[in-house]
Structures are given as structure tokens and as C-alpha cells.
Amino acid sequence: MGLALHLDDVCMTLGGRLVLDRFALRVAEGESVALLGASGSGKTTALRVAAGFLRPDRGRVWVGEQDVTPRPPEMRHMAMIHQRFLLFPHLKVTDNIAFGLRYQGLPSSEHRQRVASLLALVGLEGLEQRYPHQLSGGQQQRVAIARALAVQPRVLLLDEPLNNLDSAIGEHLLDELRLLQRSTGMAMLYVTHNQAEAAHIAHRVALLEGGGILQQGTFEELLERPASVRAAVVLGLKNLYPVRRAGERLEIPALGVNLPLDGRGAANLLAYLPVDRVRLRPTDQGWGRFEGRVEEIITGALATRLCLHREGIRLTAAVRREELAGLGVALGCVMTLHFDTAALQLLPGGERREGEQGVSSPC
Amino acid sequence: MGGRAVRLDDLRAGGWAWALWCAYLVWLGAMVSALAAASFLPGGVVHRFGELFTVPAYREALIRTHIVGAASTALVMMAGIGFLFSWRLRSAPGLSVLLRAPLLLHGFPAALAYLIVFGNAGWINRILQLLFGLSQPPLPLVFTPQALILFFCVFGLPYFLACTVHGIGPEAADLEDTARLLGCGPGEAFRRVTLPRLSAQLKTALSLVYVLAVGSLSVPMVIGGGKNALITAEIYGLVTTFADVSSACALSLGFLATLAVPLILIDRWVDWAGRWVSTVQWTGPRRPADRHSRRCRDSRPASRLLVRAAGGYQGAWLVLLCLLVLSPLYASFVLDWGAGPLPESLTLQWYREITPQFWESIRLSLLLSLGACLITLAVGVPLAVAWRFGPLPAKGVLKSLVLLPIGVPGFLWGLSLLVMAYRWWPTFAQGPWILLAGQTFLALPFMLRVLMSYLEGFDEDYLAMAGILGAGRRGAARRVLLPMMLPAMGVGALLVFVRTFGESNLALMVAPAQYPTAPLWLYQAIGISGIGTASVLEVFLVLIPLLVLFGWERWLRRRAPWAEVRAALPVG
After folding, report:
1. Which CATH class is domain B44-281+292-347?
2. A82 touches chain B (CB under 8 A)
3. Binary contact (A53, B561; C-beta < 8 A)
4. pLDDT, tens digit, for every residue of B77-134?
5. How distant is the Cα of A58 from the closest Cα of chain B, in angstroms?
6. Would you say B78 and B143 are in contact if contact means Cβ atoms under 8 Å apart?
């Protein structure tokens, strides 16, 4: 599969601050990639560099086989959906959708046809003559989607497009966006700080911090095998414990577990235990146990998060609700959880980014 | 989008922003330099500057001018802050628009309205005479410095409100509510939270009122009286009676120099007073129990009484200002005033006596206003766009600098224009074009300020979005920027029209005798034909801008129905 978008070793300084540091990302044709990170991690800047609103200090931007770095935004065959929708307030719905068609060199009959089909696609028939301020937030976002799709972009850029919508509408639109992307087969770069959105829409998630990519892969890979302590912290993963060397073994004192050294040093290492590998009952002989006082019970739609506390150490488990039923688990009571020692992973604590060899030099 | 956007780099590459602003600044500089250059004509500039302080007539006029300015500004400030407080307690929708109606009246028309209401034979004196059986008017409200102070207080309030009322919107209400939950009473919340936030608007408003008061030429000529001439009238006399332009220019520069002092004082004083009122403890430290009792008290009848008082205060001002706006209409029907407050006979005879010269003056004023609208649009839009998107240094300074023509009395600009015209192009000074040039110069700040305020809040991301959808620089400007600026252009043009139509300070200086504008014709009518005929002209002077105002507003609503843009406009 060919490349739709390639940001190659991009460096970008804004206001004297290095916002993108040797940033590299590839998006294949038909692929949906999410840039996931906290505020200030550089994800929106990366998107703006891709769009051509910002010119990078170093590095190149490729669309397909073409280097578009010096090109203005209107010559990059992209479209964008912004978190504030940015519908032109002086234009009606149809005029907003048809805005970019004028520059496609199409006859006006085709304009009308394409606008009508897009209106049907996003379910806005009957609202053609309305102004943006006469639409609800969800409808405005649909117009923004239709406007972006109208120009048949090679890459669709989305800058936290669901931020200003309530969760129900947001979830519905996310489904629609996903279906649209899969059906049209266009490449998509989706910027978000919301893990659920990234998991829902993207084939691949790139985890950003400090202007660089910490790790990328499917969302499941990120959760199950975080590449570093930083990646785990950015993802908000629980159950990270210090590791120390004890002779020829590595010891995790918090859990009372010893692991073989296997040629690894203990420096800068943390042990990570996925929450779904902690259970109420052991399923195998080799499972460890942790006794503590129930500190937190958070009931979710699918699972309940249970947190035990003992002498400053916490262990979090995600258990099915029906498992808890009838056990009489309450805040403050003492109980025992079992964990799969084979699921323990040792994460390097350094901040080395993906693809870097040794210490990176600043741009 | 923020940062170094490629699209803006393109704009920067042209350098047209620099060229435009340089041309504008050269024009501004030339106007100021003309006064300075004319001062150096034979006679010695130092000697003439000295005359301002040594010749008793000039010195007294200068002192009187600043006393009138300071007193009017202080009164407007007290009345205005009281009004803002009452507005926070009780805001009636539409009232702010009504209160701005007197902005349609300025110069001679405003003075005539004042005469009808406050004059020796005006309504107030007549009512008092009737009530107390007096033979003489009890209140000397004309031809005294106090009359000027009262006039500028009454007509300065709408300017004060126009500058400040948008600063007490919903955000101010939320902050005050927060302060009240923390234990403040309504007055204290306003004093400690809202007033300090208004300091920038207060500075603008008070400076504007001060400049309007001390720089007025037409108003003192009608209601000031010969013995109470302000410095503006002395300078005008030097030009028209003695044809001593260089002395007039020197006095003008001296006057400008003295004008800088109170403006700086206002700036500093507002800062200092803002800090003081937000920190001073007027009632002594309060105990927690007091906080509770105070909050309870505020929600009970005492608070309702306060709200009623606020309504009464607003109502009183509204009645007074409406009276002033409508008084010429009433006066235009009166044939015989008689002795009582109500006229003894009404007539339409003034309307029958309308002469062709009258229509000619209205036509000239209309043409001047329309011309000024078009020129200020043609000049203002590129200047404002260049200011917003161009790589200009010190944009804040430029934004303040565009206000210079408003900050300097209009008649001084007229004098400067006359000096330049007679020096370089005497025939220009004898035709109507000098009026157009002067009025445009005076009106441009209104257009620029409105456009700049709008563009300051303009979301550049719209242009970026147009760009990524395929529109080039020109396409984005033509299809996105200009249509979105349309309401701001409309408001700017409206302000320009209204200001130019009734402008008389500059017109008094530069208008050739054969080209009297409507306000000048009104001034002549007051002296020659009396209040009846003058009132007819004033009715037209109020009606025409009023009709334009409503028509324009309706057109704008139809053309630009999108709420987002309208909400961003500086004039609601």
C-alpha cells in the first residue's frame, strides 16, 4: 500500500519553544492514524505542518510521491475538520459545502450533484438554506464533514473534531466518520487527547509527548505492551512498580515477585501489570496474590475498577461486574486479589523515542 | 492559525501594508506640521506661545476652557458610573440604544436643543416661573460657564455610555455574582470587581468627554455668551476677525500642549482610582456574622428598593435625553410661545418658509456625508486589513494613533487644512472639496476603529480553512474576509455618516461662505430667523440620520443575518 502522507524528520519551533522534535510519521493510503497526546505534546502543530499552515524549520512533508513542503495549503489535496467547525458564517449550508468545489474545475451542474449527495450522506437534507448559526452543534459538524469530503481530499485532517459536542452526539459522529473513512478509503490523520476516540477510529495510534512519538501501534498493542514508562504514564496506565536487583534476579518488592535477570540491568526499570491480568481468583498455579484494603470501587459500563491499598502500595484490577456480585465488596474491607506474574512487563524508564538511536541531538 | 502561517508570509512579502500606513501617517503628520509651520511665520513663535499665558483675555479663556472641561468630565463620570451601577442592577433591553440617540445631535443642533429645554425661555424655566409665579427665569442656564458645564455633562453622558456599557456584559455579571457569594454587597461588588475591570474604557470615555468639551467651537458660540468665550472662540476670532493665522496656529499649538496635561492626568487618575476603590475598606473589617446578615438583607426589600431607585435614575436620564432629541420637533410647530410652559398657538408656517438655500445646505451635507462614507471605506478597509495581517511594528501604538483626529479639537484640524490649502492650492480652499477632505479626515478614525476592533477579534482560522479548501489568497479575501467584514463596514459607514452630517466645528473653520453645510445654516438661522425656523432645520438634521440609521440597520440585518458576526461587532 502506498504512502498518503509522510512527515519526515520535521522540526518546528514556535515562540522560541521546540514544538516538534525530529517528528516522523507515515500514513498509508486508506489508513486512519490517530495522534494521541496531552495538551502541548505537539499533535496540533504536527497537523498544521501537514496542512501547510505552518512551514517547518527542518524536514519535509510528502503527499504521495510529491514533496509538498513549499506548497501552500490550497495545493496539497487535503481537507480539514476543525474542533470549532469553522463554518463560514455568511454562507448557507449548501454554499459552505460547495466552497471548495469552485477550485476543482468542475461544471456547476456537478457542484449541485455533489453537494446533494453529500447532504444525503451526512443526513442534512432539508437544511440546505440554513446559516450555520441556525444549526445545532452536531449538524454544524456534519456540514464541516461534508465540506471537507466535497473536495475529495487525498488526506483528511481532523483536529479534535468532537471536542465541542456532547458525548452522545460525539459517539454517533465518530461511528459515522469511521464508516465514511472505511467506505471512501481516504487516509485520515486524527488528532485527539481522548483515548476512546483514538481507539474507536484509528487503525494505528501514535502516542506523542514533547514533540515526538513515544510509540505507535494499534491501541491494544499500546495498552498491552507500552514501550516505556513514559508511554505508560501518558496512557494513564495503572500498576507500575519499582524494580531492584537482588543477586542474579530482579525483585519487585511491592508485589513480592522475583524475575530472572536475563541480562537486563535494574536501573530505570519499572514493572507493569495490566489491570485485566488481575483477578478475584487465580486461574493458574503461578499467580501471585495481593492482600489489601479496598480503597476505590469505580463502576463502569463493562467492568468495575477495584483498587486495593496496602502500606502505600496500590493494585488496580478491572473485573467484570457479575464477578463482584454477591461478594459483599465494600470500601474499607480487606480482600485478596490474584495477578498473573507471567503478564508482568519490565519497562525502560528512559525517554528514548521510537526510531531514535542513542541520545538524540536537538534540531 | 497561530504561529508563522504561510498565508501571512505571502501577505508580508508584498510590503503593501507598510506603504499604506506610511501614506496615512504622512497625511497625519502633514496636518500637525501645518499648524507648527504656520506658527513660525513673522512674529516669533515663542512670543506667540507666550501670549497664551500673558494676554489676560487668552489666559482667562484658557483657564475657563479647562475648568469647563474638568468640571464636565467629573460630572459625566459621576453620572455615568452611577448609570453603569444602575444598569447592573436593572438593565432594560433597548435602553442602551435609546440612550445613544443623542449621539445624533452634536454641535449647533445640540446647542439648539439645549436652548429649547434649558434656555431662559426654555421649558424648565417656564415651568418654574409658572409654578412659583416668577417674572424672571429663575435658572440662569445659558450664557454662563455653568451652562457649558451642564451642556457637556448632559451631552457627554451618551458618549461615556457608548464607550463603557459593553464592558458590563454577562461576564461582569458572573464576576459580580461570584463576589456577592463571597460576601460583597451589590455596591461593593460593582466597586471592587466591575469598576477596576472598566479602567481602559473609562480612560477612553473620560478623555473623549474632556476633548469634546474643551474642543467645541460651535456650542460655546450659541450658549456660552460673549463674556464666557473659551479658547476655541478666541482662536476662531483671530482667524476670522483679524485674519491672523500664524497667531491662531501658535495659540492652537499652545492649547494642544496644555490639553496633553489633563489627558495624562485622566489616564493616571483612573489607574490610581481603580486601585483605590478596589481596595479601600469603607465600612471597616466585617465579621463573618455580618457577611451573612448583609447577604440576607440584600435579597430582601432593601435590594428591591435599590433596583427601583436604579430604574428611576435611568428613567430620569432617558426622559431628559429624549426631551432634548425631540424638543426641536415640538418647537418647530410653535408659533407663539406665550407666557406659560405650553405654547399658545401652533403652526406649520416654518415648514412653508423653507427656502431653496435650505435644501441646498441639506443636499451639500448629504453629499459630504456620502462622500466621506465612500472615501473612508476605500481607505479604511485596506488600512485595517494591513494593520491586522501586515508585519507592522507597534500595532498598539498605531491603533491609538488613528484616534488622534478625534483627540484633537476639530476646529484645529480645520485651521491646519486651511493653512495647507492656502499655501499649496488656494482654489481648493474656496470650493466644497476642502470640506470633504476635512470631514473625511475627521471621520476616518470612526471607520478605522470599528474595522480594527472587528478584525482584532477575527478568527484567522477561517482564512486558513478557506486556504485548505482551495481558495488562494485573493479567493480567501474576496469570499471569506470581505463578506465577514461587511457588518463592520456598515457600522463604520453609519458612524461616519452620522458624524459628518452634523459636524460643525471643522465646517465653521473651512466652509467657504457660498457652501454652508446644514449645521452652519442652522447657526445662521438661530441668529437671523429665530428658534422656529432653526427647529425645522434641526428636525431634518435629526430625521435624516435617524432614517439612515434604521434603514441601514435593517439592510445589515438582511445582508448579514449570521449572529456570530453581529455579536463580534463593537457597536451592538
Report:
1. mainly alpha
2. yes
3. no
4. 999 999 888 888 887 666 666 666 677 777 788 888 888 888 887 888 888 888 888 8
5. 14
6. no
Identical fold for domains A3-217 and A229-348, yes or no, is no
d(C-alpha B225, C-alpha B129), whole Å: 23
CB nearest A133 (choices: B10, B486, B562): B562
Which top CATH class is B7-39+355-572?
mainly alpha
Residue B32: CB partners within 8 Å, gap ≥ 6? B416
**Residue B244 DSSP SS3:** coil
Structural domain spans, chain A = 3-217, 229-348
> B459: which chain A residues are within 8 Å (Cβ-Cβ)?
84, 86
Give dist(CA A152, CA A110) in Å, integer: 13
Nearest to A54 among B3, B484, B486 (CB): B3
Q: How do A278-279 and A334-340 pair as beta strands? A: antiparallel
Pull the grid cell for residue A214: 513515544
State whether A74 and B3 contact (CB < 8 Å): no
* Contact residues, chain A, for B486 at CB < 8 Å: 90
HEC per residue, B477-546: HHHHHHHHHHHHHHHHHHHHHHHHHHCCHHHHHHCCCCCCCHHHHHHHHHHHCCHHHHHHHHHHHHHHHH
The strand pairing partners of A159, in sequence order, are: A191
What chain A residue is nearest to B559 in terms of C-alpha separation? Answer: A90
pLDDT band, very low/low/confident/very high, at B571 (cuts 50, 70, 90): very low
Q: What is the Cα–Cα distance from B545 to B563, expressed in whole angstroms?
A: 25
Spatial contact of B426 and B418, defined as CB atoms under 8 Å apart: no
Domain ranges of chain B: 7-39+355-572, 44-281+292-347
Alpha-helix residue ranges (DSSP H) falling in B430-481: 433-456, 461-468, 473-476
What's the CA gap between B45 and B40, in Å, rounded?
Answer: 5
Residues in chain A where the model's pLDDT stays below 50: 351-353, 355-363
CATH class, domain A3-217, is: alpha beta
Nearest to B467 among A72, A90, A104 (CB): A72
Interface mutation vs chain B, best among A5, A18, A53, A118, most B CBs within 10 Å: A53
Helix (H, G, I), strand (E, B) or coil at B172: helix
Q: Which CATH class is domain A229-348?
A: mainly beta
Distance CA B301, CA B539 (A): 45
pLDDT in tens, A68-96: 999 888 888 899 999 888 898 888 999 99
Name the residue among A74, A90, A91 with its Cβ closest to that of B468: A74
* pLDDT at residue B568, as a whole number: 41
E strand or H helix at A78, and its extent?
Answer: strand A78-81
Cell of A169: 452526539
CA distance B233 to B214: 11
Q: In which residue are the cell numbers 505571502 written?
A: B10
Of A80, A88, A201, A79, the C-alpha closest to A152 is A79
Which run of H or of E encompasses A29? none
Q: Which of A72, A133, A147 sits opposite B6 (nearest CB)?
A: A72
- Among A57, A88, A140, the residue to mutate for chain B (most B Cβ within 10 A): A88
Q: Does A43 touch chain B (CB under 8 A)?
A: no
**Which residue in chain B is spatially nearest to A100 when comparing CA positions?**
B469
Q: CA of B488 to nearest chain A CA: how many angstroms apart?
A: 13
Contact B470 A88 (CB under 8 A): no
Give the gap in angstroms from C-alpha A21 to the nearest C-alpha of chain B. Answer: 16
What residues does A36 pair with on adjacent strands? A192, A207
Whether chain B has a CB inside 8 Å of the CB on A92: the answer is: no
Residue in B9, B467, B483 closest to A73 by CB = B467
Alpha helices in B215-244 (DSSP H): 218-219, 231-240
B464 to A72: CB separation less than 8 angstroms, yes or no:
no
